[in-house]
Amino acid sequence: MSSLNRSPSPSNSTSESFDSFSTDDDSDAGTSFGEIALMSEDAVRNASILADEMTDLMVIDRGLFNGTLK
User: Region annotation Disordered: residue ranges (predicted)?
Assistant: First the structure.
């Protein structure tokens, strides 16, 4: 799995450009990501993920995530 740091394109708010690219080959089945942005109401997602193979994802909303931490 790869992590992409993104910055919005000034000419078009729906497109993104990627200033840096780092590879994380340590992501195995069951690995989570994005939990930092779920822990706080005002947290901002700071990376995007690009899978280089077929991947099943599970989306968990903030309320469910924070409820499991209690």
Answer: 1-34
Spell 31-62 as b/e; 16+ CB within 10 A means b.
eeeeeeebeeeeeeeebeeeeeeeeeeeeeee
3-state DSSP call for residue 63?
Answer: helix
Domain boundaries, the chain: 2-55
- Token pair 């991947």 in the structure block, residue: 55
Tokens representing residue 38 in the block: 């779920």
pTM over 0.85: no
Q: Please check whether residue 16 is in contact with residue 6, taking contact to mean a CB–CB distance below 8 angstroms.
A: yes
For the stretch 37-62, pLDDT in tens is: 888 788 777 777 778 788 888 888 88
Query: Which phi and psi (to 5°) does residue 63 adopt?
Result: -60, -45
